[in-house]
Acyl-CoA dehydrogenase
Amino acid sequence: MTFSLELSPDLTHVRDWVHEFAADVVRPAAAEWDEREETPWPIIQEAAKVGLYSMDLFAEQVAEPSGLGLIVVFEEMFWGDAGIALAILGTGLAAASLAANGTPEQVGEWVPQMFGSIDEPEVAAFCSSEPGAGSDVGAILTRARYDEATDEWVLNGTKTWATNGGIANVHVVVASVHPELGTRGQASFIIPPATPGLSQGQKFLKHGIRASHTAEVVLEDVRIPGRLIVGGKEKFDERIAKVREGKKAAGQAAMATFERTRPTVGAMAVGVARAAYEYARDYACEREQFGRKIGDFQGVAFKLADMKARVDAARLLVYRAAWMARNGKEFTSAEGSMAKLVASETAVYVTDEAIQILGGNGYTREYPVERMHRDAKIFTIFEGTSEIQRLVMGRAITGLPIR
Ligand SMILES: Cc1cc2nc3c(=O)[nH]c(=O)nc-3n(C[C@H](O)[C@H](O)[C@H](O)COP(=O)(O)OP(=O)(O)OC[C@H]3O[C@@H](n4cnc5c(N)ncnc54)[C@H](O)[C@@H]3O)c2cc1C
């Protein structure tokens, strides 16, 4: 049996191609879009033109046999800039939720609309969180009621912190159909473009990833065709019947999918951490104090050694989890959560140390590590906070119902 961490020639080519785009197009635009705090449509368009923002690229990289296809793309893009990268790749998270749980017809009809065309790219949003339901997904209040007479779902509620919320062409919304069943009574719904009743609420001004749009999504008597429940109504009804009979079913499937997409978020964090590490390393090899390069002081060199070690360790955990997910290996110690946890805390640590190495310069907006530091913090919060990752891991490794 062979063991290799070498990327295939095809994947190496993809990595270098994405890196070039990140270095030539994304990085130079990062400060401007961070300051403007707006969705960088011209850059999304540029990404669409070169084929980097496309359904085909996502499909190809998801299918990559090592499992590292999307991981490599995400690390390079977030190395360029986290805010712009999320504006470009945030659609991937909505698309992944549909790809994982949708019927083939739903995937075929809606994923292309999430991306739009080369001339008119679109974005998509995945809306789960609510003001009263962040970590506690079971507390979701948004309701979906089935109207037999018209074969339609009627949705009401308020979603919050939705990436691309309100500006998306397609929204995937998690709602409760049978509130008494908690997460097991929930389903996701596809809201087509320009559906009456869906509107954007408050747009949030943020600490970091400011080029990525985050907003409330308000649903008031939103009516959608019956077929737009993700996975289909028949399957949902069967699942609910099983739950009511007390059989093990449902809910857990969605959580398992989540666990499997977490390495991708880890890869984003690794990209930001690596960018800050590289910037600090180069700076330390240039800046002189006391007549020598500051990198020549052990106090600085040791920081760089720790930063590099932690970036590489985080990447290895991300690679392992992604490889396991792609190759059908069961996560026994919540390896997906582990990768996301370590990578996101690494990004916070490394960007903090990078500012320290740049001293006063690091604290100003003249240097990119200040932005990277603000950007890094989101990774310990979204897609499950660090505490929630520890909870998932704790349960997996002890078998106890830790709260
Ligand atoms: C920029 C941004 C983009 C986002 N994008 C999306 C998106 O596209 N779609 C979407 O649905 N959501 C999105 N979110 C929401 C995000 O997933 C939530 O913020 C996150 O899940 C945490 O929920 P919360 O903010 O309500 O925090 P809370 O759940 O209120 O948690 C507050 C604190 O309590 C801790 N805590 C909570 N429960 C426990 C527990 N059981 N044990 C220990 N500690 C606990 C948390 O770890 C945290 O430190 C986004 C958020 C942000 C900021």
User: Anything to note?
Assistant: Residues 9-115 form a domain with the Butyryl-Coa Dehydrogenase, subunit A; domain 1 fold (CATH 1.10.540.10).
